[in-house]
TrEMBL record:
Protein name, UniProt field: Diacylglycerol/lipid kinase family protein
Bias type Basic and acidic residues, positions: 54-65
Keywords, sorted A to Z: ATP-binding, Kinase, Lipid biosynthesis, Lipid metabolism, Nucleotide-binding, Phospholipid biosynthesis, Phospholipid metabolism, Transferase
EC top class, as a word: transferase
Record-level Gene Ontology MF annotations: kinase activity
Residue stretches making up the DAGKc domain: 74-204
Highest taxon in the source lineage: Bacteria
Composition-biased stretches (Low complexity): 1-28
Lineage of the organism: Bacteria, Bacillati, Actinomycetota, Actinomycetes, Micrococcales
Pfam families found in the cross-reference section: DAGK_cat (PF00781), YegS_C (PF19279)
Region (Disordered): 1-76
Cofactor: Mg(2+)
Coiled-coil region: none
UniProt KW Protein biosynthesis keyword: no
Length: 400
């Protein structure tokens, strides 16, 4: 075989030509014919280093051998369970996750407990760093909020195993609230739904600020004071009904406060209010619809401005939430009644990509039922489809 010519245009010497032989004298046809030499396998130089053998192996950039995880080139997926040990039967839940994980052919799951100092966001980041392919969370609304904050935009699906007091996100997703095994099983064979995540940048009177997530709703004013005044022991005993006690304590000394607020793209407003809610979801326990048109996956946040001026105003607020939104709106005749009724301004609604809210003096703030102190400003934004949630196979999400 003759190689290509060099840069001068002259043909190069044939690679196999004996020393001192003119390359032009070699017949290419004859050179291509097989010779009569029979080669044995040991005559062929090996393509491995002397002394090495066995199966193929994985190496790093420098060629050093790297161990294979689990003895396979592609290890099995693994799940991570984050749970509040106060809210769940930890041993039973861990055993359930282990059993269903093994049944699905997944690796041994990882387990993380929340603490007073870590509500779930830090351990969620640890789980993601450890390579978890799915994360399960079991605890109250605060635990779900903290884990969702860390997992926002991670692309890793989150399974909510209902437990604790409110289960508000689970309720709004219409998940089974009394069948934890159904949700654990869905981790391995269920569907996924991308839901929005809200973020609130909170600024204190001293200028310090922090940004935290919420997946249900955040608020400033009376709703936050109500949560702060709710007896913790009573809440553990009777659940969300304990908030009625907190509301009674808060209403006694409730005073309206001046706020300036603006939804992006809308004009600036000023009003005296009792509370401002920014919601990603609209449903509360006991079938109450605080914001009936709120959707967890529409890319918007819903705003409710509560501004009753007196006792009658509070009655109108209660009628709006407990009767109009939660009952009449379910029926065609009820919706006709609402269309004919004279509107009141005890509750005002708005919708948009966020809310910029400022007040002085500072007012209490809550996010998904967790207290976040007092603030003079709260700027909310939405991350559309920021959290990938797990739902049971075939779960109807058309109304979400």
């Amino acid at each position: 075989m003759v190689t290509a010519g060099d840069a001068s245009g002259m043909p190069a010497r044939a690679a196999d030509a004996p020393a001192g032989t003119d390359a032009d004298a070699i017949d290419p046809v004859d050179a291509a014919q097989p010779d009569e030499v029979i080669r044995e396998p040991e005559d062929v130089a090996p393509d491995t280093t002397d002394g090495e053998g066995g199966e193929a192996r994985r190496v790093d950039a420098e060629g050093r051998t790297e161990p294979l995880a689990g003895g396979a080139e592609k290890p099995s997926p693994k799940a991570a369970l984050i749970y509040n040990p106060i809210k769940v039967d930890a041993a039973a839940l861990r055993a359930m996750v282990q059993r269903l994980s093994a049944k699905a052919g997944w690796s041994e799951p990882l387990f993380y407990e929340t603490t007073v100092d870590d509500l779930g966001d830090d351990v969620a980041r640890q789980a993601l760093k450890a390579g978890a392919d799915a994360v399960l969370v079991a605890g109250g609304d605060g635990t779900v909020r903290a884990v969702a904050e860390a997992m926002s935009e991670s692309g890793v699906p989150l399974t909510i195993v209902p437990s604790g007091t409110g289960n508000l996100l689970a309720r709004n997703l219409l998940l089974p609230l009394t069948d934890p095994e159904a949700m654990v099983r869905a981790t391995f064979d269920g569907d996924t739904l991308a839901v929005d995540v809200g973020f609130a940048a909170i600024r204190r009177e001293d200028g310090e600020s922090e940004e935290r997530a919420f997946v249900v709703m955040g608020g400033m004013g009376l709703d936050a004071a109500m949560i702060a005044n709710t007896n913790g022991t009573l809440k553990r005993r009777v659940g969300w009904i304990a908030y009625v006690d907190g509301a009674a304590r808060s209403l006694a000394g409730a005073k309206a406060f001046r706020v300036v607020y603006q939804v992006p793209g809308r004009r600036l407003h000023s009003a005296r209010v009792q509370s401002v809610l920014v919601a990603n979801c609209g449903s509360l326990p006991a079938g109450l619809e605080l914001i009936p048109d709120a959707s967890v996956s529409d890319g918007d946040l819903d705003v409710a401005i509560f501004q009753p001026k007196n006792t009658l105003g509070w009655l109108l607020v209660w009628r709006r939430v407990a009767w109009d939104n939660s009952f009449l709106r379910r029926f065609r005749a009820g919706r006709r009644v609402l269309s004919l009724r004279t509107k009141d301004n005890s509750v005002l609604y708005a919708r948009g990509k966020g809310l910029d809210l400022a007040t002085t003096p500072a007012q209490p703030v809550q996010l998904d039922g967790d207290e976040f102190g007092e603030a003079v400003r709260m700027r909310c934004r939405v991350v559309e489809g920021g959290l990938l949630t797990v739902v049971p196979k075939g779960h109807d999400t058309s109304s979400l």
